Every structure is written in structure tokens, then in C-alpha cells.
Amino acid sequence: MPSPRSASLVAVFMGLASVLVLASSGTAQAKPVALEEAAREPGPGNLTELRREAEKSSQALAEATKALEQRQATLAKADTELKAKLEQLRTATAQMSRVRKPLADLVQSLYQTPSGGDMSPFLSGDSDVDQLRALSDMTYLVSGRDEVLADAGRLYQQQQRLAAEAQDLRATKLLVEAQLSLEIDTLRKRSAATVKSLSQALVKLGVRVNQGGRSGAACDPTRVSSAAQYPNGLLPKSVLCPLQQPGRELRADAAIAFVALNEAYKRRFGRSICVTDSYRSLGAQQSVYYRRPGFAAVPGRSNHGLGLAVDLCGGVESFRSAQFNWLEANGKQFGWIHPDWAYRSPFEPWHWEYDPKVGSGL
């Protein structure tokens, strides 16, 4: 029968689980509607919102997974400690039994002597002294027997208490794990739905997310961290998302932000942003470095090699043109900036970069 404490824990955590189920189901029902609407009417604001929602879901999923792992580690440690205590208790009980056994056996024989229940074997001495000594021994034996019973009772109570604690611990562990697992599953589904809607929105805007046989995951902003494992200029197609401009590609978060920027630019100037260069492989960096000394970063250090920079044309390359001024005033709203060095040394009005810190704050 579970202890009152265990029953209380079960009731509390079952209540929490029920609340979480209701909250999760409500969220799961509400979110897809908004995501579907965003996918049906893609635009700069919708793309930014979808990207932000995808990143938030991914972060929440990572935090919930980490919380589950930490909770499991904590409970596993506590469970191990409790098991160690129970083992110590079992060992102590066995040791006490071995120490007390001779005394217990002697006391037992006292009550099993076939003498009609009397104590004549202990009182058969030839003198009063012998009888008194026998009575003293018998009193000692009875007292020892009582101590054995008292110790056994205390140990039994302690064992029951520890067993109840173990039961509570296991019940709590199972309930907390179930609660966190449910939350993780809900967040995972929400993240997948957001990424799917984002991909659909990009496709409607002319981005061929599966271009070149790559997986649509290349345009998944929640997976940009995978690009960090590759050296500058050696990013594979699997982590580069195509742009609307043929042959151009960037890291997923930068690409999505650039598509949103491009849509706003089209509304202002009636045409897409002209792009002469985007992601630049290590070989391409070396070629540009030697062809245009002083106007290219050392190979392996360029933001082009990280998929976070573009070189633009169509008027943007002319300093203080209408296109340049518009991009300077509006680019930051999408995470795109004209870096400070590009105003002076070397002077490159055509060079623009995506700043992940600015982008993530949008």
C-alpha cells in the first residue's frame, strides 16, 4: 500500500500532467492555424515571424530536453543513494542477527525446555548462591531477548520508512519524466509545423529549397548550429539555403532574412535586389583575394565563407544612391547591415552582412 506521502505526490503530479495536456493541446490547436495563414500569404513580416517562431520553438525544445536530462540525473543520483542506504540497512540487520543469535538461541531454549514450562534447569543449583546466579543469568538472557526484539522493531520501522521513500522517489521520477516528455513532444511537433510552414512560404516566394538535390532542411533556421562545425569556405550544400536569385545561397537564417528583405525591396523599387556574390567557397575566396588585392578578406576569414555576406549591384553599389540609402535605413530591420569598416577601409558600398545577433533580436 503506498504511503500517504507517495499518494500525495502522485495526485499532485497527475494534476500537473493533466494541466499540461490541456495547455499543450490548446496550443497545438491554435498554432497551426496562424502558421497556415502565414504560409498562404508570405511576405517580409510573415517570414520574420515564422523564423522567430521556429527559433523560439527550437530553443524551448532544447531547454526542455536539458531539463529532462538534468532531472533524470538528479533522480538517478538520489535513487542510487537510497539504494545504498537500503543495502547498508540490510547489512546492519544481518550483522546484528549474527551478533545476537547466540543470545537469542539461548533465550529460545529457555522457553522450549521440556520441564512443564518451569525453570528447574536453571534453578537446580546446590546452594542459594548457585540459584541466585542462575536467576541473574536468566534475567540477563530475558533482558537480552528484549533488546533483540526492540532492535528488530526499530530496524523494521526504519526499513519501512526507507522503502516508502524509495516508492515516493520512483513515483515522482516517473511522473516528472512523463510530464517533461509530454512537453518535449509538444514542442517538437510545434517546431516541425513551424519549419514546414516556413518552407512552404519560401517556395511560394520562388525559393527552390530542394535545389541541387539538397534537403529542405538546408533552409531550416533551427539547424544553423550545424554549419558551425565546418571551416570557413567549406560549408556543404546541406547547410546552405538557396536565394531567389539563381545560383546564390546563404546560411539558413541569413537566407530567410535576405528573402524577407528582398520582398520589401521589391515593393519599394519594383524589382529584386541584384546580387553578384553570396556564399564564397575557400577556393573562390583565394581567387578573389589574388585578383582584387586589398578588396577581399584573407581566405578563410571572410564572412562570405560563413554564408553570412552578399555583394550587391543594381544601384546599391553606388554610395548614397536611392537603393543604398533605402537598404541602409531598412536593412537592419531584417538583420542585414553595412559593416562599419565597409564605409572606410576598404570602401565597399556593395558589401552587406547578416548579423545573427541583430537578426535574433527581431
Automatic annotation (TrEMBL):
Residues 249-356 form the D-alanyl-D-alanine carboxypeptidase-like core domain. GO terms for biological process: proteolysis. GO terms for molecular function: peptidase activity. The keyword Signal applies. Keywords: Coiled coil, Signal. The keyword Coiled coil applies. Residues 47-95 form a coiled coil. InterPro entries: DD-CPase-like (IPR052179), VanY-like_core_dom (IPR003709), Zn_M74/Hedgehog-like (IPR009045). Residues 1-30 form the signal peptide. This is D-alanyl-D-alanine carboxypeptidase-like core domain-containing protein. It comes from Sphaerisporangium krabiense. The lineage of its organism: Bacteria, Bacillati, Actinomycetota, Actinomycetes, Streptosporangiales.
